[in-house]
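Troubleshooting: if your tokenizer reports a length mismatch, compare your output against this known-good record of 286 residues.
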Amino acid sequence: MTTISWLFVPADSEKKLDKTRFVDAGAFILDLEDSVALSAKPIARQLAAAFLEKSALAREKLWVRTNPVDGPYFDDDLAAVVPAAPGGIVLPKVRSPRDVTELAARLDVLEREHGLEPESIRILPIVTETPEALFTLGGFASCGPRLAGLTWGAEDLGSAIGATATRDINDDWTPPFRLVRNLCLFAAHAAGVPAIDTVFVKLSDFAELDDECDEARRDGFSGKLAIHPAQVEIINRAFLPSDEELDRARRIVELFDANPGAAVLELEGAMVDLPHLRQARRILDR
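Known-good structure output:
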């Protein structure tokens, strides 16, 4: 089952962590990075580990965004949260697939040390926050079974290149960041993992969020990051297929099941072929 909504939760706030009980997100990302001040990182690690240990939520729904792999806080982040067995790590400011494989190697060791199932902690890298990362996006297929998807971000990249804005006067992505979004989309599909769209930062504009979700789903994204609980319901609704889509997908799958070996068939006067079958199965998986 593809995870649709990924909600960031600042890990230094017990109040916000507690509110996860009332939110129907597909995954919760306990954040140790950008939403946590430097002085609060030690307490955020403690609270994140305690929450992982006591939460009644399914383990695969509980993720942690660490600090970057090349920064001074990364080792402390892993040491604090891995013993509490998160479902996955969201890795920010990835420079290349090597950062993911480095994290995977460290997780191999830590899982053995703490008696966790091998390769049980998955990885979702944010792959567009550094300029150098854009030239390595075709290599994530080599990252192994821990890779859960690819997602992207614009603000850190914009800061890195000195962009004065990431969106234009119509609130559409400017050409450089539209390119980055599309590269992440194709890189994810090249690696055979879901593409997760980036955050929408206008907290009160639910209509525009809905439009952005519809566009992302149309283009091939499987889900979206969220920064506020109120965004989750909109994301869930937008990325779930309609009853009509589900019905057509089921009929396509049933048609091919009834005609094993066929590559092209007819459904309601229209041709359907193997790409239609693959898309139908993706819809049913959602």
